[in-house]
Amino acid sequence: MREVEIKAVFFDVGETLINEGRIYDAWADWLGVPRHTFHAVLGGVIARGEPHMAVFEHFRPGFDLAAEEEARRAAGVPNGFDERDLYPDARRCLAALRRHGYVVGVAGNQPAEAAARFAALGLETDLAAMSAEWGVEKPSPAFFARLCQEAGLPAAEILYVGDRVDNDIVPAAAAGLRTAFLLRGPWAHVQALTPLPTPPTHTLVDLDALTALLTTP
C-alpha cells in the first residue's frame, strides 16, 4: 500500500520553536531561588509526570500565576517570549517547508496573549493558533480534531512536531496524525529516558533534520 503523502506540518511552540530557558530563569529570579535549583525541581516534576505548575507550588505554595504575572508586568519584567527566545533553526525550517509546498502551521498550549507575541516574530506560517484561542488544549483529542479542521486535511496527511511525549506524540498519534519527536528541552530529554508508549514516526535532534527529511528527494 502506498504511504499517504504529508501535506501539512504543524509545530508545537515551547521547546519546539521557542527556547524556554530564559523564561524559566526569569521565574527563578522572580521567586528568589537559584536557577539551577529551579531547573532541578522542574526536572523532578517532569519525571513524575506532574503539571509544570507544580514547580511554582514547590517554591511558593498557593502560587497564583495571574497575580504574579501582573506583578511582574508592574515591575517591568513581564513574562513571555520574544525574538531572543526563537531557536535559530525555527525560522529557516518553516520558510523552507513553505517553499517546498507544505502547509505550515503552529498550534500549542499557550495563553491567548501569546498569539500577539508569536505574530511579532514574523515567521512564515499559514496558520498559527494558541490553545486559549481554541478553548481546548493538548492532550485532548479535541485539540487535534480542531487542528485537522483548521488545516482542512485528514489527520494522516499532517505531521505534528513536538518535544513532549505526553502532550504531543502520544495524543497526536492517537488522533491519526504522523508525529516527529524533537529531542530538545527538559521534557524531551527526561521523557526519552523511558520507552515511548507510542513510537513517533520520526525522531529528530533539531529542525534542520526535519527540513532535510521533508525536502530531500
What attributes characterize this protein structure?
single chain, 217 residues, alpha/beta, Rossmann fold, 2 domains, six-stranded parallel beta sheet, 11 helices, 6 strands
Short synopsis of the structure:
This protein has 217 residues and is an alpha/beta fold. Helices cover 46% and strands 12% of the residues.
Q: What can you see in these coordinates?
A:
- This protein is 46% helix and 12% strand.
- The protein has 217 residues and is α/β, with parallel strands linked by helices.
- The chain folds into two domains: 146 residues, HAD superfamily/HAD-like (Rossmann fold, 3-Layer(aba) Sandwich); 54 residues, no CATH class.
- The chain has a six-stranded parallel β-sheet, sandwiched between helices.
- α6 links the parallel β2 and β3.
- The radius of gyration is 17 Å and the shape is globular.
- It starts with 7 loop residues before the first strand and ends with a helix.
| Individual helix count | 11
Uncertain segments:
none
Strand segment count: 6
Number of structural domains: 2
N to C succession of SSEs: EHHHHHEHEHHEHEHEH
List the helices and strands and how they pair.
Blueprint: E1 8-11, H1 21-31, H2 35-47, H3 54-59, H4 65-74, H5 88-99, E2 103-108, H6 114-120, E3 127-130, H7 131-134, H8 141-151, E4 158-162, H9 165-174, E5 178-182, H10 186-191, E6 202-204, H11 207-215
Parallel strand pairs: 1-2, 1-4, 2-3, 4-5, 5-6
